[in-house]
Amino acid sequence: MNVKWYYRQSEVPDSVYQHLVQDRNNENDSGRELVITDPIVKSRELFISDYVDTYHAAALRGKCNIAHFSDIFAAREFKARMDTFFYILGYNPETRRLNSTQGEIRVGPSHQVSYMICKAVLSSAKFQLDVKSSHKLGQVADKVFWL
Fold first, then answer.
1. What Pfam families does its record include (predicted)?
2. Who has the most CB within 10 Å: 5, 33, 118, 136?
């Protein structure tokens, strides 16, 4: 049976976790309340990793449920129950870093795409009557070329 690795807060280095707490406190100053102020909910947060181990089913002690939330504000929906946890971020033990599990959208001139200038050149072509196709005599096709 394949088992995904998750890390508890106590298994993440204290310096790494303190940066997360500081970031969340900064977000909390924006006027939105954080759900992590509740100590019971706080103890239920895990950090997912990319590691997977394979175990025989007899070696497992039990099963738990883990919910994924996109951000700390979405985690307000979490209800602390027995054997129920949640995660928002991932943890890589090799680099000792927390990372987002979602794709990121970066804003700013250095992260924006440069578009090519498109000039449309129209060419008209009349089709001959073709029994095998549905083209009718006089139908016009437009083609666009990149310059």
1. BAH (PF01426)
2. 5
Residue 131 burial (CB < 10 Å; 0-12/13-18/19+)? Answer: exposed
- What is the number of other CB atoms lying within 10 angstroms of the CB of residue 45? 21
* Mean pLDDT, 10 residues at a time, the chain of 147 residues: 92 90 72 67 91 91 91 84 93 88 62 62 48 45 44
Residue 135: count of CB within 10 angstroms of its CB: 13
Tokens describing residue 128:
């001959």
CATH class of 2-102: mainly beta
